[in-house]
Design a protein that fits this description.
The chain is mostly beta strands and 153 residues long. It has strands spanning 21-28, 31-38, 50-51, 61-67, 77-78, 83-89, 91-96, 99-104, 108-111, 117-121, 127-133, 141-142. It folds into two domains: 11-47, no CATH class; 49-148, Sandwich (Jelly Rolls), CATH 2.60.120.10. The chain has a five-stranded antiparallel sheet, with no helix packed on it. A three-stranded antiparallel sheet has the order 8-7-10, with no helix packed on it. A two-stranded antiparallel sheet has the order 1-2. The radius of gyration is 19 Å and the shape is globular.
Amino acid sequence: MSTRGRSRQPVAAAPSRADSSHQASRRDGEEAVHVQVIERSKPDGSRLEQVEGRAFGSGVSIIFVSTDRPGAGPHLHEHPYSETFVIHRGRAQFTVGDREFVGTGGQVLVVPAYTPHKFSVLGGGVFESTNIHASDTFVTTWLEGPQADPLAI
């Protein structure tokens, strides 16, 4: 969509509410722009850890990770879509296919569809990442851990 020759004005969001999402919109000629604003802070003081895009009309789903617990992370798994890890700070040992490496703050890692992967937080500080699933819902095949054993559920 081209915006050449049209002025773009900021979208004003409604006042924030910690317990729900809300929409903000404006009119730009005949074109309506709608924005979903999702608050991560919950009324009980906890934080939203994941968002499935389907509920908000988005084609992506997101997991937010923030932990200082060494060893934290998912067991080996894969998805039928790519997953992008935006590492904000900290370090984690990643396994992606046959490769093992340390991912660090400031890096962006893209794992292709159907590629087995996992990570484990390394000590020495907080690990924070935003993990973007290229799907409007989470679809995961667990290859290790209790979720991979149908008799354990």
